[in-house]
Amino acid sequence: MIKLIECPRDAMQGLPDFVDTAIKAAYINQLLEVGFDTVDFGSFVSPKAIPQMRDTVEVLSLLDLHKSQSKLLAIIANVRGAEDAFHFPEIDYLGFPLSLSETFQQRNTNASISKALETVETVQNLCQTKGKELVVYLSMGFGNPYGDPYSPELVAEFVQKLDDLEVKIISLSDTVGVADNELIKNLFEVQIQAFPHIEFGAHLHSRRESIAEKVIAGLAGGCKRFDGALKGFGGCPMANDDLVGNMATEVMIETLEGEGHSLNLNKAELGESMKLANYVFQS
């Protein structure tokens, strides 16, 4: 079964103008009608770092979760953020960005990799007692532009550390869109074979014309969990100034269905979500 993770939080967080809370909630409510496995809806981080997400608690209070089967994911960057998120039983997953790049870890969470690993351990222990699941995003998982060390072997070392902490979901993240198809396929293939009990996801950034081939490469490597954002809006505001967009969900859907996968999505609600995305991101 393929899992699609829709990421309006990732799509919105780098926008220069604040999206009104009611509009955010209306958009996320619409996405909840589509049938995505999970919706990455907000984050519990410093409003100074990501001002766009300062209203996550208010947005959450406006969500209609009664009819939706989709689970909710929120991003956190430290233990305090996790503790804030634990107050809300509606949230199923906490996502933490752990980088293979020391430079990017400092830029993204203002902490070293070693400190970030300590945070992962603390949050994972808390999640196990609070009934939530931790999703660790291995950012710069396919290389980095900073000259920091990178190799598939380094990825394996990080995965082993996370496996030692009993982290069950790891999303390999191409934060700046540098991954080639062969690396995508091989990285997933090797990690999934080595750690079959871990659910590996793909959080890739890409130009639109390369999305289909990256999805197919991920599938060939055994990946069954894909992150995206409708129309490819967004990207990581901490990565660089020239944002490489998210994987456009509608292109991923077309590609996955073309490869024979049934996604069980409500296409009428997907169409309505596409229309609303135009308003949210281009108004």
- Give the oligomeric state of the chains in this entry, treating copies of one chain as homo and distinct chains as hetero: single chain
What is the general shape? Answer: globular
* Backbone structural class: alpha/beta
> Strand order of the main beta sheet, please?
7-6-5-4-3-2-1-8
- The helix content, as a percent range, equals 40-55%
Number of helices: 11
Largest sheet, described in full? 8 strands, parallel
Order of helices and strands: EHHEHEHEHHEHEHEHEHH
| C-alpha-based Rg, rounded | 17 Å
Mean pLDDT: 94
**Poorly predicted segments:** none
- Share of residues in strands: 15-25%
Distance between the termini: 36 Å
Fold and architecture overview:
This protein has 283 residues and is an alpha/beta fold. Helices cover 42% and strands 17% of the residues. It contains eleven helices and eight strands. The protein has helices at 8-12, 21-31, 56-61, 79-85, 102-109, 113-130, 152-164, 181-194, 211-220, 249-258, 267-282, and strands at 3-6, 38-44, 71-76, 93-99, 133-139, 169-174, 199-204, 225-228. The chain has an eight-stranded parallel β-sheet with strand order 7-6-5-4-3-2-1-8. Strand 3, helix 4 (79-85) and strand 4 form a beta-alpha-beta unit.
